[in-house]
Write a structure and sequence with these properties.
CATH superfamily of the largest domain: Aminoglycoside phosphotransferase (APH), C-terminal lobe
CATH topology of the largest domain: Aminoglycoside 3'-phosphotransferase, Chain: A, domain 2
Order of helices and strands: HEEEHEEEHHHEEEEHHHHH
Radius of gyration: 20 Å
Distance between the termini: 29 Å
Number of strands: 10
CATH architecture of the largest domain: Alpha-Beta Complex
Number of domains: 2
């Protein structure tokens, strides 16, 4: 994604910059407008914020940075987030063993989950599964009207199951990143990991972050128990709620597929995003079948 000329001028005029020598776009992300700004003194990472999630992203980024989990925040307003630029490589591009990728991700996640008591009340909203899905019903090509009733039914089923189980079990919320995929973890030259991109941060049960981590990284579901064991080793008082894991995994597969479809300009033209959607929705159907859950299948809607 790129900046318009007026946005570029606004970026160069931010008070945190002295003399801007260069602005180069960073194109790794699929949904973010990010750039590297080089001045006479140093380089910065700059992200153009999403209006709907700007406050959550800024609050989470600042808190995480304060505790050494994320790059230092230099400047922020309603439109821009500026952090220090870290010369690094993302985990998805590093030649790491799978176990190192998982352990590194869960270690950062566990540390983030401990920060909730330091948040100001109301600074970050609770995860609203229904609202999050409704935001993605925007692309009429990817989501024909005849399919929306089924998608709405699935949303209602998952939301009611999650809300009922959380109420019954008394599971508490923590600060969740909401998108700990391997492209959102940096390794600098000293091999220190950094967590970035808090656009999807919410207050939610630990099981949500764990489930989205598994889904978005396409980790085979037979490794779920291993991941829960690893996380429990990092947070000794954590006791996983298997019911929440089950339904948050389904929710994660579901909403990820919706996101990929919603960002296609043509249901047949964008093969990459369509393939990613198929991967997520196929995982949804297979996982539901494995657990003998009475829930509509998704793959017939995309085939």
């Amino acid at each position: 994604m790129s900046l318009t000329s007026s946005e570029l001028n606004a970026l160069k005029s931010l008070s945190c910059f002295a003399e801007v020598l260069d602005v180069s776009m960073l194109v790794d992300g699929m949904s973010h407008t990010c750039s590297k700004v080089t001045t006479s003194s140093q380089s910065y990472f700059v992200k153009k914020l999403n209006n709907e999630t700007a406050e959550e992203e800024v609050v989470s980024s600042r808190l995480s940075a304060k505790h050494g989990l994320s790059p230092k925040v230099i400047y922020y307003d309603e439109t821009w987030l500026v952090t220090e630029y870290i010369d690094s490589i993302t985990v998805d591009k590093a030649e790491f063993r799978t176990d190192k990728c998982i352990t590194t991700s869960l270690t950062l996640m566990a540390k983030l989950h401990q920060l909730l008591p330091q948040l100001k009340t109301g600074a970050i909203s609770n995860l609203d599964t229904l609202k999050s899905v409704q935001r993605l019903f925007t692309n009429p090509v990817s989501l024909p009207s005849r399919q929306r009733t089924i998608l709405a039914d699935i949303t209602d089923i998952l939301t009611s199951k999650i809300e009922a189980e959380q109420k019954l079990s008394g599971t508490e919320n923590v600060l969740c990143h909401g998108d700990i995929n391997y492209s959102n973890i940096l390794f600098d030259k000293t091999q220190q990991p950094w967590l970035i991109d808090f656009e999807c941060s919410h207050l939610a049960p630990v099981e949500f972050d764990l489930s989205m981590f598994i889904a978005v990284n396409n980790i085979p579901t037979h490794l779920v128990d291993n991941i829960l064991t690893c996380y429990t080793g990092l947070v000794s008082n954590y006791r996983p709620n298997q019911t929440l894991i089950t339904y948050y995994l389904l929710y994660s597969f579901f909403i990820n597929g919706l996101w990929y479809l919603d960002n296609t300009n043509d249901s047949k033209g964008n093969n990459h995003l369509r393939s990613l959607a198929i991967e997520q929705w196929s995982a949804f159907d297979n996982f539901a079948l494995k657990h003998h859950l009475d829930i509509p299948k998704l793959m017939p809607l995309i085939s």
